[in-house]
């Protein structure tokens, strides 16, 4: 029987979602815990592959379990997992839906704070930039839904069959004090480090080191910049995953990265 698991995790303690040799991944921790509880080897399949130290405030994976779950697996699994991983829902599915290939939209949020704050540093990226031109940054963010090919904003475009991403929404928001920034983007798919590379270039625009025309030229000419300079991973969250048959509201509000902030579109 196939089950979907609705979860969230703090990524700063892991080397990404995907199982890899000699490092701790979210997938490995969950597989080991599930296998121990169910007393049989369990392989799980995630809805995506977050980078090392990237968070997920909403994430799904699926697992095939031979018998129907007739005990409180949600409670037992949450007790056994570290506090950095939370299981919100376990959903029995009809047929064999796939957590990764069936997703029709993924949303990410990237948070920046421009002052040192020990309570934000693990959940938002600290950039000591006091004079960012957020209006110029917003101008280039508004370009993103107008283009489909993101070859120029990917570390290894040749490993993909294509680099087309249907970016449906993109926005830049700021808090009431003007010292915290939130970049939001939604698409059917994303390429390797695409959002962090975009954020790095958007910051250069804000600092006056890259013009709107230069930024747009990457989208038009599809030429990879000589320096990609991805933004820090810490501020990035996979924040929403939508399926044709499953659309759940996220259960967490990005912890203190969002608490207490009134966000306004620039």
From TrEMBL:
The active site is at 51 (nucleophile). Keywords: Isomerase, tRNA processing. Its EC number is 5.4.99.12. It catalyses: uridine(38/39/40) in tRNA = pseudouridine(38/39/40) in tRNA. It comes from the Bacteria. Signal peptide: none annotated. Substrate binds at residue 108. Coiled coil: none annotated. Homodimer. Belongs to the tRNA pseudouridine synthase TruA family. PANTHER family: PSEUDOURIDYLATE SYNTHASE, TRNA PSEUDOURIDINE SYNTHASE-LIKE 1. Formation of pseudouridine at positions 38, 39 and 40 in the anticodon stem and loop of transfer RNAs. This is tRNA pseudouridine synthase A.
């Amino acid at each position: 029987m196939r089950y979907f698991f609705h979860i969230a995790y703090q990524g700063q303690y892991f080397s990404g979602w995907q199982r890899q040799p000699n490092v701790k991944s979210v997938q490995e921790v969950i597989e080991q815990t599930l296998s121990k509880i169910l007393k049989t080897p369990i392989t799980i399949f995630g809805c995506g592959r977050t980078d090392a130290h990237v968070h997920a405030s909403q994430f799904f994976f699926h697992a095939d379990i031979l018998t129907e779950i007739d005990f409180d697996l949600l409670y037992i699994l949450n007790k056994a997992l570290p506090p950095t991983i939370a299981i919100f829902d376990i959903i029995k599915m009809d047929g064999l839906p796939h957590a990764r290939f069936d997703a029709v939209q993924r949303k990410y949020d990237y948070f920046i704070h421009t002052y040192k704050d020990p309570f934000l540093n693990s959940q938002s990226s600290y950039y000591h930039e006091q004079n960012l031109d957020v209006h110029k940054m917003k101008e280039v963010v508004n370009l993103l839904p107008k283009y489909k090919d993101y070859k120029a904003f990917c570390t290894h475009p040749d490993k993909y069959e294509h680099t087309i991403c249907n970016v449906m929404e993109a926005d830049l928001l700021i808090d009431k004090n003007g010292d915290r920034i939130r970049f939001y983007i939604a698409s059917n798919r994303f390429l390797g480090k695409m959002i962090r590379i975009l954020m790095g270039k958007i910051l250069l625009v804000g600092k006056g080191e890259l013009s709107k025309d230069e930024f747009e030229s990457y989208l038009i000419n599809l030429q990879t910049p000589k320096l990609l300079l991805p933004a820090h991973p810490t501020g990035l969250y996979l924040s929403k995953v939508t399926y044709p048959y499953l659309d759940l509201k996220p259960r967490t509000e990005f912890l203190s990265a969002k608490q207490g902030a009134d966000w306004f579109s620039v």
